[in-house]
Amino acid sequence: MHVPVWLWLVTVVGLLVLVGIDLFVVDRRPHRISMAEAGRWVAMYVACAVVFGLLVWLLAGGRFAGEFFSGYLTEYSLSVDNLFVFLVIMTAFKVPVIHQHRVLLVGILIALLLRGALIVAGAALISRFVAVFYLFGAFLIYTAYRIARSPDATDEEAEYEDNAVIRLLRRVVPVTSRYHDQRSMLRVDGRLMITPMLVVMVAIGTTDLLFALDSIPAVFGLTQDAYLVFAVNAFALMGLRQLYFLIGGMIQKLVYLRAGLATLLSFIGIKLILQVAHDDWQPFRSGAQSLPVPVPNSGVSLAVVVAVLAVTVLASMIKNRSLARGEKGSTQS
Q1: Of 5, 115, 220, 310, whose CA is between 20 and 30 Å from 195?
Q2: What is the pLDDT at residue 299?
């Protein structure tokens, strides 16, 4: 899909407008975000993504619209798994409830900038080396195996540990012992210091980058268009903050979330390998040596993504209902 420079600029400006509304309207007066308020914002961001996908359909065709929607649903579902990690970070840094919205907003903006750099690098590699597709596919399948075998992401005993960026930040710049409203920096006895507010923002942004190492190859497995990959990540991340306040502790009720994510990543990894084998199986030289293997199109990919997510949620609901009945029965006995 050919995307002119002006469309990139319009997209970035549109995202900045949304951020500005969020920052100067929602966060103008720090407060506890209610579920009703978070629900309205989640609905708004999802509606924006749907409108964007429909515009892609009108301007570029159903194929690219299908790639966007399947990528968006995949990225959003993978991002849900991040929410528990964000909750652990918020708890570890003892972020006041009224400031958690700003922390997530700035942290996710940092994450979006870092993801943008990864997307550009990934697109450049893909345009030059066919073998990257094989690596992406194998990495996604390995990640799916790792997710399926790893402990539950909602383990209440999970603890936060500073990553390399945060450790370096603490060494270079002194950090105050407490929060100072929403301030990120201040002078104490003439010495410039940063507050825990800035530290936790950087922690959110850089920790998200680790998740992006899984999710960006997954989106590239559904569409190789860098513009769509960026749009998918932007819409998913922008709606993630409000989703944090909307579902919060409900994450623990998605007992089959990891199984669903592992299934999605396995499907995308296999699709990516089939796609490159179908187009040109030679990893290091292009000679259009294709193999007659079936490759799911964008419509099939979207249907698989929707089906996996629906089954994941439905199975989790049934499991929770069964557990609730068992607990109720044991209590009565």
Answers
A1: 115
A2: 80
